[in-house]
């Protein structure tokens, strides 16, 4: 129930705008054709930006998924992303996290900005899963 309340507060206080901005970036990436891998990542990050509480970011290799995004091509894609957009988006999320962490009420939201900053740096080859599911996978593996 707490996760739902935090997600609703997040959404009302700006999460909807962040998610829409990520989706807009995804549309732009898809238009360029060559940016489709980054566009897919933008849509995934956009969903996380809408409802970040109760979800976590993991490398797809940790889920047993091996594909182009988890290998050398994914690494190259992340380097290109990092230089062109990732570093700047991460800095924005970090600044938001610092501003929110100053207030006691904003601390949970600051942690979500840090989670978004982390995936912003290298989105290719990652998956967003429910935190409970990830804990079960970690305990089994």
TrEMBL record:
Residue ranges of the TM segments: 27-51, 72-91, 97-114
Keyword match Nucleotide-binding: no
Keyword Transmembrane helix (UniProt): yes
Residue ranges occupied by any Inner membrane component domain in the UniProt entry: 5-55, 76-125
Keywords: Membrane, Transmembrane, Transmembrane helix
Pfam families: YccF (PF03733)
Source organism, top-level taxon: Bacteria
Signal peptide: none
Gene Ontology cellular component terms for the protein in this record: plasma membrane
Cross-referenced NCBIfam families: PRK11770.1-2, PRK11770.1-3, PRK11770.1-4
Alphabetized PANTHER family for the sequence: INNER MEMBRANE PROTEIN YCCF (PTHR42903:SF1)
Protein name as annotated: YccF domain-containing protein
Organism of this sequence: Oceanidesulfovibrio marinus
High-level lineage: Bacteria, Pseudomonadati, Thermodesulfobacteriota, Desulfovibrionia, Desulfovibrionales
């Amino acid at each position: 129930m707490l996760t739902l309340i935090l997600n609703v507060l997040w959404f009302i206080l700006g999460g909807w705008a962040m998610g829409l901005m990520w989706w807009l970036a995804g549309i732009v990436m898809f238009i360029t054709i060559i940016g489709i891998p980054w566009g897919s990542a933008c849509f995934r990050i956009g969903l996380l930006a809408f409802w970040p509480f109760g979800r976590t970011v993991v490398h797809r290799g940790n889920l047993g998924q091996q594909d182009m995004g988890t290998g050398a091509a994914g690494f190259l894609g992340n380097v290109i992303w990092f230089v062109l957009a990732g570093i700047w988006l991460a800095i924005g999320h970090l600044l938001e996290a610092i501003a929110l962490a100053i207030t006691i009420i904003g601390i949970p939201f600051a942690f979500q900005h840090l989670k978004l900053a982390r995936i912003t740096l290298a989105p290719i080859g990652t998956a967003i899963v429910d935190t409970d599911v990830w804990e079960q996978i970690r305990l089994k593996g």
